[in-house]
Amino acid sequence: MARFGYHASHEQYAPSTLLSHVQSAERAGFACAMSSEHFKPWSNAQGHAGHAWSWLGAALATTRLPFGIITAPGYRHHPAVLAQSAATLSEMFPERLWLALGSGQRLNEDITGMPWPEKAERTARLSECAAVIRALFDGETVTHRGRVTVVDAKLYSRPAKAPLLLAGAVTTETARKVATWADGLVTVGIEPGKLRPVVEAFCEGGGEGKPVFLQTKVCWDTDDGRALSEAHGQWAANMLEGDANWDLRTPEDFETASRFVRPEDVHGCVRVSSDLGRQAAWLADLAEIGFEEIIVHQVGRNQDAFIEAFGGGVLPQLRA
Fold it and tell me: Tell me, what's the pLDDT at 242?
């Protein structure tokens, strides 16, 4: 049975506000949480981008929730430093963290001035970084010279059990490739028909029996029109398809590229409804795919009302 969690969107809220949200989500009955990890938001309407690793220490210390985080190694985050960050949190809060690795977005990763490579090269760099992180989790002293350089790195403070090292993937091709090294998969979407092939490709590539996690987007409000307006205002910049989503550099670029996205287009990536029964039914359909965790991201800004409504009117239906 899937656990239903709360997504902490650093792009939309100040870190102090976000901490209050996850504490409220725990009280409301959400069983787990996931943290985004950005240097910039996708749009100025979102307007925030706190340091997720600093924030996670506070979130883990002030709740009992398990957390996940997805990040891109090999650019602004050296894989050895990522391994140290995850190992430290896992030593302090045993078996409450999973770490997912993705190939990243230029929006965040080219702030160091490194060249932004094509997808095939980013996937190869991801695999190389994952091998470094896993070796460090295993207690090895790592020297590696390739797409990234590591010299005599060793984690001196390690948890008794390393965190799960997951891979992020949104296409079947990537899901099949990352299955060779990942302990599990995390993906994103709202349509079971589009998500099943990604999960199946992961299993076919070597992920059979490994856990799969999902982040899915909703926008709930007591008024349908207001819910749609909120979803469009906050998430239109995230509806780009193809390579643009990975290659644009600034929030302003995303705003320009998405200027023709209409409110009705938002239904393609966000479940918008004021009906809690309908929201519960959508989540139940996703649970049938077999996800271990389904992390719900409310893209609207009425987080307190959402947490209360889903805690009282959606999570009990799903548990039943």
Answer: 80
Facing residues of 187 across strands? 214
Q: How far is it, in rounded angstroms, from Cα 290 to Cα 196? A: 9
Tell me, yes or no, if the pTM score tops 0.70.
yes
The distance of Cα 76 from the centroid of its chain, to the nearest Å, equals 17
The amino acid occupying position 267 is H
Q: Superfamily for 3-319?
A: Luciferase-like domain (3.20.20.30)
So what's the pLDDT on residue 234? 97
User: Which residues neighbour 20 within 8 Å (Cβ) at sequence distance 6 or greater?
Assistant: none
Q: What is the pLDDT of residue 243?
A: 84
Domain residue ranges in the chain: 3-319
Helix 303-313 vs helix 15-28: crossing angle, to nearest 10:
10
User: CA-to-CA distance for 168 and 126, rounded, in angstroms?
Assistant: 10
Classify strands 271-272 and 212-219 as parallel, antiparallel or unpaired: parallel
Q: Find the length of the chain.
A: 320
pLDDT above 90: residue 241? no
Whether the per-residue pLDDT at 70 is higher than 90: the answer is yes
Instruction: Identify the residue whose tokens are 């947490």.
Output: 307
CB-based contacts of 49: which residues, under 8 Å, 6+ apart? 10, 11, 38, 39, 40, 41
Residue 162 is predicted with a pLDDT of 98
Token pair, residue 17, equals 């506000």
**Cβ proximity of 148 and 128 under 8 Å:** yes
CB of 279 closer than 8 Å to CB of 220: yes
